[in-house]
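> tool_call: predict_assembly(chains=two)
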Amino acid sequence: MKKEMIRLENLKKSFGELEVLKEVHLEVHESDVVVLIGASGSGKSTLLRCINFLEIKNGGKIFIEGEEVDPKTHNLNEVRQKVGMVFQHFNLFPHKTVLENVMEAPVRVKNQNKAEAQKEAQALLDKVGLADKANVYPAKLSGGQKQRVAIARALAMKPDIMLFDEPTSALDPELVGEVLATMKELAQEGMTMVVVTHEMGFAKEVADEVVYMHDGQIREKGKPDELFNHPKEERTKNFLSSIL
Amino acid sequence: MFDIAHILEVLIESYPLFMKGLWITLKLTIVSILIGTGIGLIFALFKISGIKILNWIANIYIALIRGTPLIVQIFIFYFGLAELGISAFWSAAFGLAMHNGAYIAEIFRGSIQSVDKGQTEAGRSLGMTYGLTMRRIILPQAFRRALPPLGNQFIIGLKDSSLASFIALSELFSIATTQGSRTFDEMTYLIIVGLYYLVLVLLFTLLVNLLEKKLSAGE
């Protein structure tokens, strides 16, 4: 049995009157790639944001690497160091160069020595194919390049889990491939990943489990082959036929 | 009335006197702007803190300052602080700093709030604390955006420092009025002091523009 990395029990989240997550249960094990799919407004992004506490749950329990994390008593900054996040709109720091973006957190949060952090940042940029862009400002990069820098920036904290919130939705179609390739490589290296995406090709090829969300609940989950080819629920079928 | 030769003559003649006043005006402006910027930043952070009592403190401070004339504030500081043995210069400096601080607080609040929320989320998601995210990620971007309105406020601060003449501080304007009434040549001295302020403001504008260029890395 692989190590449990994330467990959500009965997770609930509301924004005012609006219930966005209703009793969600989910387990993610080490090296698993879990892809969340569903229509917009189904709660996928909120679910992801609850896992690293950018949104604070209203009910239920969140376990990270076997330990329950209570936002009231836990140091969330420490938890977040273990859980990297990649955003739809990259959110690179525009006033810092690519290299500085990647080095910022290791140096400031982990107090890593600058020379060492720079070496590691360079290696990460090399890994995502952007070694030559180290001293460029984000404004000079394409969307695909920005997102790969954002991935390198998250990896610089050496997280155990990576969350991807629609990482290719803001990209021009011709730039989607390079980001997915980087993510695929990461998956093959054994990173535990939870990915919200509309890229069904990626889900089919890379996911260990595909989770279909509707109206704040997980309606169906399974291996990509099962869920895409033999969905059990009518809703899942409708959703899949609407996007494929 | 506008005898240019005469104005030039007086300008050259009065130059050493005005230089003394200029020095005091500059000191007063720089000190009050520096302290005012510090005050402004603190109250801006109070306003965005989401902590009710800090919000209240900032709101009351800003309402009091914006709701009363600067000249009243300067006199209150002057008479209030004189009792504590604080000089006219420093009471004027504090008065102007408190005044500028209220406006600068609003400038900073606006520019901090204009930075995309995603920047904070990116910082926090990397494990950075609120304070660290603010200091390393948000404030540098906010400060860059605040520069044009801040420069404007600095220019207002420079010109407002002339009100310190009312508490017997021999800055530029007070030299113009005393010289003017001494020589019965008020208009000439008023034109001259106007020129001094104009040149100062133009130099200041140039400085702010240079700083803006320097800070626009990455855009």
